[in-house]
């Protein structure tokens, strides 16, 4: 995953490449000759720009929605974990202590290990083992009265939810924009910028500013899509605040 400096370098190189291409076009196809074809080039640029804007807007909206969903899912996972911890009070004393210890261990593992692993593109597995320990503990927990039976059933429901949210987090961690869509985005950006460079403007300075502005905007959008597309990696990622808050909640009780 690219760092912030890498992203800035990509943006700068994109703008430089666009200006270099414009210089080549001006050298071998002077702007005063191209001006006669501005009607055709302008029509083509209008169609290409509109089509590409729709594609880019849709992709940016999609990855942003996925990012928000991943953030919400992490909060629900942490909330289910706190519910397990609190409802353990209805179990026999020994099992209550063990389950609460496992719940605190789950939060510690997610904050101190798994978030960093996901940022380094490593599939986390530690919390899955703790979930299995919770299941085994509940299966072996004896219940002698209706209160304990009800508490056990509620805890089983919360552990089931916790497991589901964790699996969803792993799916979101591994999910990526398909390669064919990246080809559409990149090729579309190249064609759109190239069409802008071919426009026969009377002022070379103004034309260079327009090409720079367009290439800057498109490269920034593509970099943003690439970053947001990986919700647990890079400079823009889902924060572990929900689990840190869960740690505080479980340590205060």
Written overview of the protein:
The protein has 253 residues and is mainly alpha-helical. It starts with a helix and ends with a helix. The longest helix is centred in the first third of the chain and has 50 residues, at 38-87. The chain has helices at residues 4-28, 31-34, 38-87, 93-119, 126-140, 146-174, 179-197, 204-228, 241-252. It has one domain (4-252). The protein has nine helices and no strands.
The secondary-structure element order is: HHHHHHHHH
Counting DSSP E segments of at least 2 residues, the number of strands comes to: 0
Terminus-to-terminus distance: 39 Å
Low-confidence stretches: none
- Which class best fits the helix and strand makeup? mainly alpha
Number of domains: 1
- Compute the gyration radius: what is it? 27 Å
Main sheet, how many strands, which sense, barrel? none
Structural shape: rod-shaped
Mean pLDDT rating: 87
Helix content: over 70%
Q: Quote the beta fraction.
A: under 5%
List the quaternary state of the chains.
Answer: single chain
Give the count of helical stretches.
9
Descriptive key words:
253 residues, 9 helices, mainly alpha
Topology:
Elements: H1 4-28, H2 31-34, H3 38-87, H4 93-119, H5 126-140, H6 146-174, H7 179-197, H8 204-228, H9 241-252
Quick synopsis:
This protein is mainly α and 253 residues long. It contains nine helices and no strands.
